[in-house]
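Good morning C.,

I know you're traveling, so I'll keep this short. The sequence:
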Amino acid sequence: MKHGFAFLDEAAPGIRWDAKYATWDNFTGKPVDGYLANRIVGTHALCTALRSAQDKAATLGFGLLIWDGYRPQRAVDCFLRWAKQPEDGRKKHQHYPNLNRSQMFENGYVATKSGHTRGSTADLTLYRLDSGELVPMGGGFDLMDAVSHHGARSITAAEAANRQHLRSIMEDCGFAAYEAEWWHYTLKDEPYPETYFDFLVA
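The tokens, ready to paste straight into the viewer:
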């Protein structure tokens, strides 16, 4: 583990996680380079801010589920290689129904230099504390489509309200939203704003 980083499950007990890029359930259809364990890693600052967000969410009856935190640069490089490979159709309908692979980068859904790699960005959603069920958000994680944008008009009023709950919680705890992805938040005062790390999640 790099100095200044921690496992989220140790630093913020009680936050749920499902590290999608360590599994076969992601837009590439297989585990991604650099993710050797299904755990979330982030800077100490990220973990502290997520603990605050967890507490704030709980007052509204919600918990947090994290899909990704720190992302090794080699994972980003893996995405770039994948984008150049022939389309096999396995994940297109679920994750990028209206785009070609290369257009993910052109449209800002995947970056060649990712904020995740600096260690203070999280992809997450809300779940209900009373039932454990994920809150409807009008589209799943890594759905690379206009429906995932903040302010999307094709979702229900309840889904839009849920997105606003998440955004309010995160912004109140020091995060900035990314307009193209309702699940993506970066610490405004991140500790390594110019450093892109490449240590393994292991």
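Safe travels,
E.
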